[in-house]
Amino acid sequence: MTPLQVFFQQLLNGLTIGSIYALIALGYTMVYGVIQLINFAHGEVFMVGAYAALTILLVLGIAQPLVGWLLVGVVLLCGIASMAGCGLLGLGIERFAYRPLRTAPRLSALITAIGVSFVLQNVVMLLYGATDRRFPPVIAPLRWEVAGATVTILQVIIWVSSAVLMLGVQALVMRTRLGRAMRAASHDLTACRLLGIPVDRVIAVTFCIGSALAAFGGMLFGVYYNTINFHDGYLTGLKAFTAAVLGGIGNIPGAMVGGLVLGVLEALGAGYLSAQWKNAFAFVVLVALLLWKPTGLLGERVAERA
Amino acid sequence: MGFVAPLTGDQAPHGEDMLGGARLAVEQVQAGGELVPGYRVALVALDDQRNPTQAVSAAKKLVADPDVVAVVGHLNSSCTMPASAVYHQAGLLQITPVSSNPKISRQGFETFYRTCATDDLQGPAGALVAVRELGAARIFLIDDMTTYGRGLANEFEKKARELGANLLGHEGITQGDKDFTPLLTKIKALQPDLVYFAGMFPEGALLIKQRKDVGLGGHFMGGDGLFDPVLIELATAEAAEGIYLTTIGSDVHAMPTAQGFIRAYEARYGPLGAYSAYAYEATNIVLWAIQQAGKKDRQAVLAAMKTLKDYPGLFGRQNFDEKGDSLIRDVGLFTVKDGKFAFLKTASWD
User: Are residue B224 and residue B308 in the same domain, yes or no?
Assistant: First the structure.
């Protein structure tokens, strides 16, 4: 491999995990944009999404790689079901954990978020056990050589599906009435209420969409790494939160860019510096960037909002 | 008697295998009535989550319990190491079935025994196979930065250098991490003949699988931490085919002395795990020492242990050297064939 080919392969590695970070980061950023809450339970929603997909695969009794339309059908079913399930979970969390605290000091909501995170982790541990759960091999291992780098079918699925979802979210926020309401709510909740915008419903929908995206990320994570554990939401959630801050929290394109940038930085850090510093490297970059640009990469609009 | 291993967390399958072996030994003795006049033996199983902090608190809990006269545990060297000091202070006999880092017994604790081969045998044995038999001239080392992983990798490295292999690099990974593609890509660019991983099966499985995903060729070898059928499940049989691993003992299935144990275990708990036999052996030796002592007394049990000679174990006659290490020092060499572990031979280490 030439150095350029190695660099290209590292870029692809980073984009894969970065796409998953980006999907989760969207949920952090959307919720923050609307109610300035850092929803620390979001990483757990991601983990629940992976378990939901696993449950469906187990219920369907899939033990062998599928092909053709059957594969497409099963993947769609898994994706839709885990997104729907986690969307409902997000609605529930918002309704019962955060809405009663809407007017409470911000710290109360933050502590509640951590509490919700513990509850979700422990519920999953009790239901599915504390050991790693293996994902059935849904997709046959297919690999291609592209310009000296190896690309797997799973990576292609991750890139394409997360790109579609991210574009969908961007369109939803920028082009629809609901999106306009979300953007309005992020500017001023009280003014929105005065203008007759159903603020509570907008917030609930934001949680629902964010959670569904995290669930999809969870499914991709589980299928790609072939294993899921009840505490996998913690570190991945923390990374995705970092990605959201990196891109400028509250900013939707920022979360996508932040996720991809973080993934690529991790890959380059592990590839060119040292693998044992992989996690530290990502956070060092975050600190350095925030010193230089406190609002994050695309964060100007956050300053206006706040 | 106490028992400690990870019973929750990603290494719980290994811990469960050990617990099965220990339970079987205790149940067989319980069926025979009182081990020591006036007392029945019972197993107190604690969980250390493969976490050294949890290991020490489990050790303290056992030490504080006056009914505990000996301990079988732990799994990970990084847990056994600090816990062994706690047992030593309390004068409590500890036998580790599988913690293979040689430094643990070099501490000189008279309370410490182990029933498996150590990494200063396993590492060199792996290096010999890699260089002499697989003809690997260019080798890359990965370890998981634990007491076990780093220790084993260093032993491998020392021997491989001695044999004239070209060590391309030695990198650490973090336990619990999932994405190793950046590291594997870096390794791919160096085109090694063999990648050696000293660590446990959850990370080993991901390395084996992702190695295929980035198109890294050549041989893959690991230590006994990979020796669990879950490894092949997690890595997929396709990616695991043809990897090599060394173990801290010979193939238990080939031991005529172990056939009765295997039948009893499989009837009770299902397929035999990698570490079940070692835990069974260690537990039986502890039970033997308690019986010899003839009373519920830590010092008497420890003293009885010192008199052990030619104990008829699963792997042959067990004896221990002055450091407490077993004199049965076989290192097994396994490969993966058709999605299953296959025993190749007993490997030598010099």
Answer: no
Say yes or no: B234 and B269 in one domain.
no
- Which residue, among A24, A200, A178, A171, has the nearest Cα to A95 in the 3D structure? A200
Do B101 and B118 touch, CB atoms closer than 8 A? yes
A285 alpha-carbon distance from chain centroid: 20
Q: Which residues are within 8 A (CB) of B260 and not within 5 positions of it... i.e. 6 or more apart?
A: none
Residues B337, B213 within the same domain: yes
SS3 B140: strand
Total-model pTM: 0.87
Contact B202 A276 (CB under 8 A): no
Residues B124 and B236 in one domain: yes
Q: Do A152 and B213 touch (CB under 8 A)?
A: yes
Among A17, A155, A270, select the one facing B183 at the smallest CB separation: A270
Q: How far is A29 from chain B (nearest CA, A)?
A: 24
Q: Name every residue whose Cβ is closer than 8 Å to that of residue B246 and which is 6 or more positions away in sequence.
A: B122, B125, B126, B129, B221, B222, B223, B224, B331, B332, B333, B334, B347
Residue B297 lies in a domain: yes
ipTM: 0.86
- Tell whether the model's pLDDT for residue A303 goes beyond 60: no
CATH number, domain of A163, equals 1.10.3470
Residues B260 and B235 in one domain: no
pLDDT tens-place string over residues A195-226: 999 999 999 999 999 999 999 999 999 999 98
| Structural domain boundaries enclosing A205 | 3-305
- Say if B218 is an interface residue toward chain A (CB within 8 Å): no
CATH number, residue B213:
3.40.50.2300
- Predicted pLDDT at A277: 83
For residue A291, what are its two tokens? 């010193």
Distance of residue B114 Cα from the nearest chain A Cα, in angstroms: 27
Do B16 and B130 have their domain in common? no
Its domain, for residue B38, covers 2-117+253-318
- B73 touches B54 (CB < 8 A): no
Interchain contact, A235 vs B10, CB within 8 Å: no
Shortest Cα–Cα distance, A270 to chain B (Å): 6
In a domain, B323, yes or no: no
Same domain for B242 and B270, yes or no, is: no
Question: B200 and B83, same structural domain?
Answer: no
Q: Which of B176, B185, B215 sits opposite A10 (nearest CB)?
A: B185
The Cα A59–Cα B96 span in angstroms is 40
In a domain, B324, yes or no: no
Q: Tell whether B140 is covered by a domain.
A: yes
State how far the alpha carbon of B39 is from the alpha carbons of B36, B152, B290, in Å.
Answer: 5, 41, 11
Residue among B174, B188, B213 whose CB faces A143 most closely: B213
What is the total residue count of chain B? Answer: 350
Between CA A260 and CA A283 the distance in angstroms is 15
Q: Tell me B327's DSSP state.
A: S
Q: Each residue of B152-168: b (16+ CB within 10 Å) or e? A: bbbbbbebbeebebeeb
Name the residue among A17, A125, A229 with its Cβ closest to that of B179. Answer: A17
How does pLDDT run across B303-313, given as a tens digit for each residue?
999 999 999 99
B176 — contact with chain A (CB < 8 Å)?
A: yes
- Number of domains, chain A: 1
Q: Domain total for chain B?
A: 2
